[in-house]
Amino acid sequence: MGNGVRATIIGMLGMSATAGEGAPEYVPKKKQTGKMLLVVLVAVAVVVAAVGVYYIANPGQAPGGGGGGGPSGKTSVTVWQAFSTTEFPAFLSIRNAFMQLNPNITVNWVNQTTPSPSTLQPAALAGTAPNIIIGTSDFEGSSLYYYNFTLNLKNYVNSSAFSIYSPTSLADVTYNGTDIYAFPININGVSMIYNKKLIPTAPQTTDQMIQMAKNITVISGGRYSTSGIIAGDQSDSGYRFVAWQAGFGGRLFASNGAPTINTGATAAAMSFLNNLTTVNQVTPAGMTTQATWISLFQTGKVGIIFDGPWDITSYVSALGANNVGVAPMPTVSQTGLRPLPFLGSIAVSVLNQKASSASSAQINASVKFAQYLASNASEVKFWNSAGDFPATTGGLKYVMSLNVSWANGFAEQFLKYSQQFFNTPQMAYYWTPFGTYYSAFISGSSTAAQAASSIQNSIVSSMQQYHIPPYVVVSSSPLVQFMHFDTAATEMNMAVQTGIRD
């Protein structure tokens, strides 16, 4: 990213170009083993009598949630978290520092492999949920706050507490433009990552990208020894696709929550991605597993991929810092529009008394720890430990002051060319239909237009079945609605972009 663009971003954040006093030194990281699991398909059977909460036992952690205040005025709270191996040391350091500052509060943690509706919603209905949950902003909005499981934090802290966050990250945790249901810990999304040994400069348009990819693609005996591009569109149930849909002029949902997928823009984006294999022959067929194309890029066999900061240090470690470039996704030549990937946040929410059976002391302690975990100093610790982009403007100022080339590339994508992750309940019904019908199109059993129509029809059908606006309007509260959905123990299939790393 050029100095002019970097200065523009710094200006957008209201920053100076230098680090604040006392900013910790950035230390390049070793190989990061964690990789994003973008979609988890879960089947939720809401039968309160059969609640099961899965956790991995570790020394010093406690299962479950709720409970009461401890002896002698002490309060204990429980956090469900799923930090990566590079993030967890920062979390533990932050937790220990908080307990030193607040000796009457004990913070226990549970390592959740998949903090999804399959574990949280049944636990919340039974009043056995944890006090605090750390997950993706869309999941916490669509599956927790919407169903009245978590607090509106505006009722518990002064409005000035939210002024430290960038507008984009705060929007990620704001529901209906008013309620704030979490503190954002970071911001994340995908951008174009390229191997500079194969692609020396970032393409500015898709036509340039395809030509550069053709120049380096090597096919022998029907097998790719070097691939120009792997878009990752078949490996994530539609997470990366939304960027290309926007580049062709489309959008997933209207402002009222109705899906807007059955459009020419959706079909054009599908055809563009499929043509990378069938027409342009720069992408091998069958790239359905992220681990496969991640490994191919790490070993220098792919020119361009689309991935996020959660994997960047593994690429830098494998290829060398000077050989890894990050830039915004190129402008779509047919439309002149930029692809707009989702910009989401990992965030920390506090469960309410109904969901966790917490005392008022535990609620207050939980809010206090959540706010501390998402403070400027804590978010800088996560950056130094794992490369997580801070959600605070102060943390972003620090990151920009370092002038790390790949960080600059992500910042330009995030702050200039992105769209907010839909944090509404409608989003949960997108993932499975997209994966099903896009695969049918890729295999040749349907056209792109038919796939777009089928995805939309499937989403509408599920929304009608589960009383999700705008197709069904009910007068009872969202929590009551949710309990009514599954009283016959039928399973609700939901796919949630979790942000969990293994």
Question: Could you list some keywords that capture this structure?
Answer:
5-stranded mixed β-sheet, 20 strands, D-Maltodextrin-Binding Protein, domain 2, alpha+beta, 502 residues, 18 helices, 37% helix, disordered C terminus
Nearest-angstrom radius of gyration? 22 Å
How helical, in percent, are the residues?
Answer: 25-40%
Give the beta-strand count. 20
Q: State the separation between the terminal residues, measured CA to CA.
A: 30 Å
Identify the overall geometry: globular
CATH arch. level architecture of the domain at 30-188 and 344-420: 3-Layer(aba) Sandwich
What this model shows, in words?
The protein is of the alpha+beta class. It has a domain at 30-188 and 344-420: Periplasmic binding protein-like II (D-Maltodextrin-Binding Protein, domain 2, 3-Layer(aba) Sandwich). The chain contains 18 helices and 20 strands. It has helices spanning 3-12, 88-101, 117-126, 137-145, 167-172, 206-216, 241-247, 264-278, 290-298, 312-319, 353-356, 360-373, 376-386, 393-402, 405-416, 431-442, 448-465, 478-485; strands at residues 36-37, 40-44, 75-81, 105-111, 132-136, 174-175, 179-180, 183-184, 186-187, 191-195, 218-220, 223-230, 302-307, 324-327, 342-343, 346-350, 389-390, 419-420, 492-496, 500-501. The chain has a five-stranded mixed beta sheet with strand order 4-3-5-16-8. Strands 11-12-13-10-14 form a five-stranded mixed beta sheet. Helix 2 (88-101) packs antiparallel against helix 13 (376-386). The longest helix has 18 residues, at 448-465. The chain is globular. The chain starts with a helix and ends with a strand. Mean pLDDT is 83; it is low at 15-67 and 475-502.
